[in-house]
Amino acid sequence: MTVKIPPKELKEKLSPEQYDVCVNKGTEPPFTGKYFDCKDKGMYRCICCGEKLFDSDTKFDSGTGWPSFWKPVSDENIEYISDTSYGMVRTEVNCKKCGAHLGHVFDDGPNPTNLRYCINSASLDLEKKD
User: Fold this and answer.
1) Which DSSP symbol is given to 35?
2) Is 118 a catalytic residue?
3) Which of 41, 63, 78, 90 has the most CB atoms around its CB within 10 Å?
4) Domains with residue ranges and CATH for the chain
5) Catalytic entry in 46, 48, 98, 118
């Protein structure tokens, strides 16, 4: 079930960069996000609604400058959308609960899935494990 968060509420809650990424489908510059090289353990959640998205155990260093994961916590928490912007064919990934833009998924990741979920730090909030 999608929960739409009013844009006014999101503007109050999110930084300008987080709003641009999550609502306007923007992209943070590579190697600038707070989680691209983060090694902390925990659960990555949607910055907008708090939905569980990625476990740190599936995070890997892709060398791309964005946090990369080889699988989501559950496919039921992710929405997959065909994206043909910028003359490319890609698969956009959004939070299925609230529709926030997260990033894209590519088929050049590690085993066992061979997937690389390339996610903007601005769309995530890390709930650290103690």
Assistant:
1) T
2) yes
3) 78
4) 7-128 (2.170.150.20)
5) 118
